[in-house]
């Protein structure tokens, strides 16, 4: 049996990933504030499981409590392979340094960076104890590679997560474990995050007009297509531990 835990699988890229994992015969646990009835119906049709857990991923404590309980309840019915996909994230706060809301900064850092780190830390430990092969995917962004006006928090959290991924992979290779961790950059998609970006003021995000043009010109990929490309990669390619995979290398 194969199992996948996907954060934010109720919509957007997370839903696309969950859909195509189900198509590959993999059971899904969706950690998000709301579930997805279409994904649940597909799971039932394919005699698979789709379990929704209403969790606020920005709460590190709440998320860790779920994972501790999940691993404790596996007992003899543990999966032979576990996919852990850290998809949930936020681009907020979009604003220049000096005008950032501290509460929004804290939530972003927890959601984009701290929670994926501490959950991966726990998952590595418990998967080793239970002899489960673990594959971790951290959804990142091109914003991690260079400074973008108004995106100091988002870019910094994704850059930090990239380095964490590389370091964790290095350690796993040295220990010769069965665990793999990679980063995946989906580029720009037609999601709610893009709506948030397009609604920004020019003073908060100087390149807002460029992102508005992406939508107007139909240059945004559909999250279902991006999700399919990631799942195809996971199912069919030998993964390189620590590598950052980019959607532009997988889709035309």
TrEMBL record:
Keyword annotations from UniProtKB, A to Z: Cytoplasm, NADP, Oxidoreductase
InterPro entries xref list: Biopterin_syn/organic_redct, NAD(P)-bd_dom_sf, Sc_DH/Rdtase_CS, SDR_fam
Chief subcellular location: cytoplasm
UniProt-annotated location(s): Cytoplasm
Keyword Electron transport attached: no
UniProt signal peptide: none
Single GO cellular component term: cytoplasm
Highest taxon listed in the record's lineage: Bacteria
A GO molecular-function annotation: sepiapterin reductase (NADP+) activity
Gene Ontology BP annotations: tetrahydrobiopterin biosynthetic process
Family designation: Belongs to the short-chain dehydrogenases/reductases (SDR) family.
This protein's name: Short-chain dehydrogenase
Lineage: Bacteria, Bacillati, Bacillota, Bacilli, Bacillales
